[in-house]
Every structure is written in structure tokens, then in C-alpha cells.
Protein 1
Amino acid sequence: MDVRQLRCFVAVAEELHFGRAATRLHVAQPAVSQTVKAIEKQLGLVLLDRSQRRVRLTEAGALFLTESRAVLARLDDALAAMARFREAESGTFHIGVAAALPPDLVPRLVTRVRDRHPELAVSVHPLPTRPEVAELFDTGLDLVLVREPVRRGPRIDGRVVAREPIGVAVPRAHPLAAAESITAAQLDGHPLAGFARDADPEIHDEVFGALRAAGYTGPGVLHGAHSGAVDASLRLVATGGALSLKLASEVRTFGHSDVVWRPLADVRIEVTVTAAWCPDRMRGTRAEVLRLLPRVR
């Protein structure tokens, strides 16, 4: 017995009229009659009482209608689930991205996804400063990249995908450019170009607190900008107007021929990027995206 036969019987049982059932199914009436007879023969039961020019369900027919409806409803649920899965496989993968990440991280990931899974579109969304990671997935995001540790649990999983030390972007003609590395104290009195404290107080205090602990006493002038204004601050460095605390990847990506990068000699300040996701959403192609994330020891 197949699904077509079940749908035919349900139509007759609900209409209690072979002609109306045939119209509903868009088939000829004799085909409907033959289908019902074939079902009755297979079951060895009379499902419809056709006497006195009317159609009525027998007790067996009423029971079979209930069971047929349950089977068809379960099938419809399965088809709907597969449709949702198919949509997820070929839909859009939404990534939330915090400010001031290593600049090549997101483009590299998007390129990998596009090359391996061209059926999956990728949409990148900026995140607010210091977001509540658990709440981000209620907005439809599939993956988030943030600059803070993520508390893993039953609903959220994650791992570190990038770790890079902060150094100093220096004008090529500046005396400090001749050094292999720069101490925190050597930054004293030099103008600095960087993001303003109110853009992200926690990261700002972490960075400058570590510098002060290593002997730094403060800049001559602090040229403030929002935390994503890497290009603007490096242009200022290129003119000789300031130094800037930067990642080497930022200088490579946005740098100028008149800018060089030097590591800090006596303090290590790292930018650590964590990817987080909801495990129950990562099925099919979405789970494959996780395998494309960079791995950091």
C-alpha cells in the first residue's frame, strides 16, 4: 500500500462521495473506486458501506481513517523537516563579527566557505561592544567571532581561532624603526594613534594597564578613534604624526610603505579571537563550516 492509496481513501472517507473525492484528487471516479477496492482486498476488510445509494464508513473504515491520517500527518512532518534542512543547506550563514579583529580573519573564512560550499551564502554582521554571546543566537546568527572568552555549555560551544600579539606601528623614518623591538618605556612621550577609551573601556584598560606595569608613563598626545579605524590611524603613522599599537596583520593589510611594525620587547599583549556557535544548529553544511575555522594551539 502506498501514500497515493492512503490519500485516496482519506478523500473518500472525508467526502463520503466518490465523485467529490475524485474531483478533490483530480482523477477519474473509476480510478478512485478501484483504489478503495484494492485497499479493502489487501486488508481483508470492508471499509465503506455503499448500500442505499450512500457511502458510510464501517467501524473498520473509521479506524483505518484515523490511522491513515496519522501516517499522512507524520509523512507531511517529515517532508517539512527535510524542506527546512534543504533550506538550511542552501540558505544564508550569518556571522557576527566584533570590532578590531585581525583584518584577514573574516575575509579568509568567507573565502573558504565560498570555495568549499558555493551553495551557502555568507552574511557578515557587526556586533555591539562586549555583547552577551548567549543572546546573539536569538537574533538569527549562526556563528560569532568575539575578542573575549566564551563560557561553553550545553547551548553554546566555541574555541579560539586566532591569537596575535600587539606591537607598535612606527614611521619608517622614526628612530625607533631601527630597533628590532620596542620597550614600553620607549613609548613615553610619543603621540599615539588608537581607539578612544570610551569605545571599549575594558580592552583599553587592559592594554594600557599592561604597558604601565612594564614602565610606560603615558603618551604626549593620544589621537583617539573608534576601535575599527585601523586605516585612519595608520595613515597618521605614515605621515610621521604618531605611533600606534597595532597587530602585525593590521599593518600588513592596511599599512603604507612608510610604516613598519615592531614587537613589544617587555610586555606581551595578545588579541585572542574566539568563535562561538549553538551546537544544535550546526547540522549538514553548517557543521562543515566549523571545520573551516582556523586552529590555534
Protein 2
Amino acid sequence: MTLNHQHQLELLKDILSNHQTDCCGSVAECEQLERLVKSLMVNQHIHSSMKPLLENVYSYSQNGKNAGNLNQHIQSHQSQLSEWVADMNHFS
């Protein structure tokens, strides 16, 4: 079953919210974020003004999966995580 762009956005927000709330995460979650962002970036239903936000999330996820200490990486991005989720709520 394929997720539509609304479901993908909700999943993206859920993972980012969990990172923000729990201050921890997994490499698999970072990889899932990457897949979601890639799919959303090519989706014609996503507003173009959301693309920079998605690019930031993609960079965050790439850096996170390659970080020596993923939990520290997540903790250092707490304010961005909150902002990204809030911004996504404006688009959905």
C-alpha cells in the first residue's frame, strides 16, 4: 500500500516529534526520514515553499545516520525539530 502525501507528512512529523520529545532515535528512523523526504520532494502536491524545510530535514537525517553519537545529534537539533514540526503543521 502506498502512502499519499498527507500520510507521508504525518509520518514525517511523527518521527521528528518523537526525536524532539524523546531526545533519541535510531539510524533506521533517519533512513525513513530520508525516504519520506525524497518522496515528498518529487510530489506535485507539496507546495514549493515547503521544499527548503524538507531539504533541512533531509540534511538532518543524513547527518544523523552518519553521526558518531546519534542521540547527541538529536539533542543538538531540539529547536529545529520543534520549528520543523510547527512549520509542517501550517502546510497540512
Protein 3
Amino acid sequence: MTDLIQNSARPFTGGALAALLSPATRLLGLGEPTHGVEAFPELRNELFRHLVEHEGYRSITMESDCLAALVADDFVAGGTGTLDEAMSGGFSHGLAASPANRELLRWMRAVNEQRPPEDRLRCDGFDGPLEMTGAASPRAALTALHDHLAAHVDPAWSREALDDLLGPDELWTDPEALRDPARSVGRTPEARELRLVADDLRAQLTMHAPRLAAETSADDRWRADLHARTAAGLLRYHAGLADTSPTRLNAIMFLREAMMADNLDAIVRREADRGPTLAFAHNSHLQRDQSGMHFGGQPLRWWSAGAVMGARLGDGYAFAATTFGTRGTDTPGPETLEGVLSALPHDRAVIDPARFTAALDRRLTPRVPADYTYAALDPATIDRIDAVVFVREL
């Protein structure tokens, strides 16, 4: 390893990573290369503490159900629920099992106890109410939106009409709909009408904005808009599940990322006067380049939420990718990015991609990992990453 490559790296600290970011950053995406490995959310916690204490950050958002995250946010804000309740109800995708997520909520609540309400830390989810096996019913989002409006104005639709159109939730949550569009109710006449309902109810938030601003809190209005976005996004997603075209699976990947991007955009706008936001998710949801995978023997390509936010925010979006060297018997070859980084003298390192690529004297090849759940970084794209965080061994 050349001295130039070594000079592109520093031992990992929050400050070392923050030093590589533009001062214009409003949203920092921290990606992880695989799920379920505690080293990465632990690293995230360490970074977030630094960002809060030294860089003015006041919020974090994760690849978790945006509606479930309201439970976690209530807890960190000082709500009456217990930490156990916040964990069980506040996360999706199995994230409640993570000790690092538990420690994050505990620490955020402790910090908030010392702060005025307007300066409190916030915890959001930016994924839709989606799991690998299917999507939630739009009932919770639509009825919460309806009830918010009904407390102040005359909604365009009644709760009884909503219930009739929605039908049983089991029709919406059928896990077989992911593989078989005939099992989806997303393009029934009732589902099409529900998309009009969601549009009408969201329009009422705008039509009655002056009255709602006078009679409700900013948090209440934020949640109403969140429910409106989520209802519309879920109905689009269910319609995608019912699509019979050959591009169906690729289309629903785009739809999920669009929901993520819209949630990130709303969070950034909400936090505009308070400080930047840290977003934590898989690298594939936050990178600027197109993401891809094979599913059911079909190659899929889509623009990630991070790519969309990069297009919207420009220099206001920054992306830090994480990757690792050895995991059990899976050791990267010397010709790969991870193999080169494994020769660094640091167990955890922050790499300046611009200095690293300038110092390279050969072309690197993508790593082919033994574990299919791990997505290796493409060495040809690291010049479009603001920072790389490397963990030598898991």
C-alpha cells in the first residue's frame, strides 16, 4: 500500500467523517452494506452523537415504517410509554431486535430531558409500511387523516364510506400478492376510488390550511401530512402489485423508493430551521448511482431515494457508504476495494474517496461476496461518494 492511499484514510470518528462533508449539507445518508450486523448501527450511534453535539443535527431517520416510527418518536420526546413498548411498536423490518436501536432511543430521550421542546431530538422512519412479504393496508393512514380533518372541518368522505371501500385488511396484506398480481386488490374499482379519496382528503389539508394552522399544533399537522403521503403511496404501491406487465417488479421498486424520497424531503423541510438530518439505511437506498438486484431470476434497476434527494438538494445531500473486510471465512481479494482497505492500519477507518481514487495505481474489481445479503461497493462509483467508512472485520 502506498503512502498516498494511507494518507486518504483516518481512524473513524464522527469528526473525521464530518470533515469530509460540504457545509451546505442538509441531509446526510449513512449507508450500511448489510442488515442485521450490530457493528453498523453502533457506528451510526457514535456518529449521531457527534453530529448532535458538534454539528447542529437534531433528527435521525431510519429505514423503518414511517407510521410505526411515531411510537419511537413519542418515546424520545418524553412520552408515557416504556422503552420496551417503544421498541416493540416503533420499528419494522425486525429492527426492534437491535440493541443499538434500543440504546439510540434511550440516549435520545435522556438528551431531550435536558432540552426545551423546540430543540428536542426527533426520530423518524422514512420507509413506507412495507415488509419483504407485502404491504400494509391503507386503512390506518386514511382513517388517521380523516379523523384529523373531521375534528375541524367537514371531510369530503365519511368513515363509513372509507370502511366500505377498504373492506377486510387481509385482502390488502396477502403475502402472495408480491409474486402473483392476481392476488392483489390494488386495481379493483374500490382501490381506484380510494386513490381519489386519498387525493381529496389531502387536498382538504391545503384548502383548510389557515383554519388548521390556528386550531392544531405543528406536530399534529406534520402527522396529518405524513398520513396523507403514506395513504397515497400505499395505494400506488398496491396498484403496482396488481400490474401484470413484465416490468411490474421493477416498477414497485421505484414506487418504494419514491415513498422513501418523499418522506426524506418532508423531514428536511420540517427541519430546515433546526439543523441537518442523518438518514440511516442500506447503501442501496442512499447511494447516488442506480441500485440493482436480482429477484425471481429477473434483473432489477432503480433510482434510490438517495439519488432522488441528490437531484433535489444538490450539495445539500451527502452520502457516506460503509463496507467491511473479513466476515468469518469471507475475505476480500487483494484486487478489490475491500482488499486494499484491509491493509490500512485502522480497525475502523474513514476514507476520503477523492484522495483515495487519486492515489490508486491500478483498476479495482468488484468484490463477489460469499453472503448474498451483502452488497459490495462498486469501486467505479466511489468518486460519487462523499465518505467511505470501512470496518476491517465483523
